[in-house]
Design goal:
Strand content: 15-25%
Shape: globular
Number of helices: 9
Strand order of the largest sheet: 2-1-5-3-4
Radius of gyration: 18 Å
Structural class: alpha+beta
Largest sheet: 5 strands, mixed
Number of strands: 7
Helix content: 25-40%
Bound molecules: FE2/S2 (inorganic) cluster
Order of helices and strands: EEHEEEHHHHHHHEEH
């Protein structure tokens, strides 16, 4: 199968295609500079503060569910999004309605200057989707990569508990899916379709990115 030079991923349930990008362009640069989608913040730009946190979803091995991970977009290269779905803080608030996570942050006074808030919201969103009744330790672990210099952590930990109550008040629909977006199962099917489109090979002025999809393609790569 021929190699591709186009990164394909979902953003807000829609297919995005980026052809021959610089392999070292970060997801944060792509969001803020190319899409002008500036809800995701840049703090340290080296993976320490969590201001740039976004969530990446992959179809699980069974193929009918999603595995979500909160990542630092400032140290994640754009080609690594291939075959995945990206969620940013803009993905959550739809039609003016706050997501249960955002509502909990408001209700628990989890934000002062607000610079860290989109990152905390996305880490909490990943927790919300991955766990139904996290322990205090699991909440602390989920927030371990996010720094806040002015609110303090107790209101944010309270929000991590409140978000589940808010989800239940929405009749359960927000419990499972992002409101207004295709359901997880449908998105997992779409991601499986993206996966099967051959190896990705991008050559840029400052480096190369390869994502082989077979042993044979990987072996050929080792010979390069
Ligand atoms: Fe600080 Fe990315 S901007 S971790
Ligand atoms: Fe100001 Fe967290 S609200 S840094």
């Amino acid at each position: 199968m021929a190699h591709r030079d186009t990164v394909r991923f979902l953003l807000d349930g829609e297919l995005r295609e980026v052809r021959n990008c610089d392999p070292t362009r970060t997801v944060l640069q792509y969001l803020r500079e190319d899409l002008r989608r500036c809800g995701t913040k840049e703090g340290c730009a080296e993976g320490d503060c969590g201001a740039c946190t976004v969530v990446v979803a992959e179809a699980d091995d069974a193929g009918d569910g999603l595995t979500l991970r909160a990542i630092n977009s400032c140290i994640q290269f754009l080609p690594t999004l291939d075959g995945k779905e990206l969620f940013t803080v803009e993905s959550l608030g739809i039609g003016g309605a706050l997501h249960p996570v955002q509502k909990a942050m408001v209700e628990c006074h989890g934000s002062q200057c607000g610079f860290c808030t989109p990152g905390f919201v996305m880490s909490l969103f990943a927790l919300f989707k991955n766990a139904t009744a996290p322990t205090r330790q699991e909440i602390d672990d989920a927030l371990a990569g996010n720094l806040c210099r002015c609110t303090g952590y107790q209101p944010i930990v309270e929000a991590a508990k409140r978000m589940y109550e808010n989800g239940m008040q929405r009749g359960g629909e927000a419990w499972i899916d992002v409101p207004g977006r295709p359901a997880d199962r449908a998105r997992a099917g779409a991601l499986r379709g993206l996966r099967q489109r051959g190896s990705l090979a991008i050559k840029g002025p400052r480096g190369q990115f390869h994502a082989p999809v077979s042993l044979k393609a990987g072996a050929q790569l080792v010979k390069i």
